[in-house]
Amino acid sequence: MSKEMGIFGSKRVEIWQEDITKVAVDAIVNAANKSLLGGGGVDGAIHKAGGSAILEECVKIRQKQGGCETGEAVITTGGNLPAKYVIHTVGPVWHGGKQGESEKLRNCYSNSLKLAQENGIESIAFPNISTGVYGYPKEEAARLAIDEIRRFLQNEDRIKKVLFVCYDRENYQIYSRLAEKLR
Ligand code: ADP
Questions:
Q1: Is 92 in the pocket of ligand 1 (CB under 6 A)?
Q2: Closest ligand 1 atom number to CA of residue 33
Q3: Does the 2-182 domain belong in CATH 3.40.220.10?
Q4: 52-65 and 41-50 helices cross at what angle (nearest 10)?
Q5: Is the CB of 170 inside a 6 Å radius of any atom of ligand 1?
Q6: How far apart are CA 110 and CA 114, in angstroms?
Q7: To test ligand 1's pocket by mutation, which of 1, 21, 42 has the most ligand atoms within 8 angstroms of CB?
Q8: Are residues 87 and 124 in contact, defined by beta-carbon separation less than 8 angstroms?
């Protein structure tokens, strides 16, 4: 299931309800953890479907820079995935909203897009970062994600297509409703 948001000028921004490991774009984004060594949720699914090449590159990045801070992003191969690259970003754990969670979540989106730009990526798919085990309220996370991506895309012309890939139905409905309002 997918729909065009129609709110970002000439860019194609779409909402999909799908497993992100099946999406054929230049890069998919992983909601990783600081260790970069894999975990549950979307992280586990990406490592499982993408194979060991992804983990090997994550280990090398760890050796070089010791993991990844919240809000930052790193890039690896997509391994066996249909996507060429995986951009791993670490979302904030929700602690009630007064510990800089929103700024950190914004950074996840903008730093992932920066890495995409630097690597000539034209199409990118985001999961709903932090809204699983990390507990970020889904509606707030969706508003922020849409706003930050819109802000970023206004000032750049290399990225052609952005997908919001919602796995759970609740997120899909939230994004669909927000897109309707923004149209
Ligand atoms: P976090 O720790 O950042 O909260 P989770 O992986 O627990 O990460 O959840 C983030 C989001 O990813 C949730 O909305 C969850 O429904 C979604 N998700 C889980 N598996 C997949 C998948 N295979 N494809 C896309 N999204 C997924």
A1: no
A2: 2
A3: yes
A4: 120
A5: no
A6: 6
A7: 42
A8: yes
CA of 42 to the centre of ligand 1 (A): 4
Whether 162 lines ligand 1, by a CB cut-off of 6 Å, is: no
Structure tokens at 67: 């993991």
Say how many Å lie between the CA of residue 129 and the centre of ligand 1.
Answer: 7
Taking the whole predicted model, whether its pTM rises above 0.85 is answered as: yes
Token pair for 105: 């979540």
What are 68-99's pLDDT values in tens digits? Answer: 999 999 999 999 999 999 999 999 999 999 99
pLDDT tens digit string along 50-61? 999 999 999 999
Pure H helices in the chain: 41-50, 52-65, 101-118, 138-154, 169-182
Residues 78, 81, 84, 90: what is their CA dihedral angle, to the nearest 10 degrees? -50
Q: 132 alpha carbon to ligand 1 midpoint, in Å?
A: 5
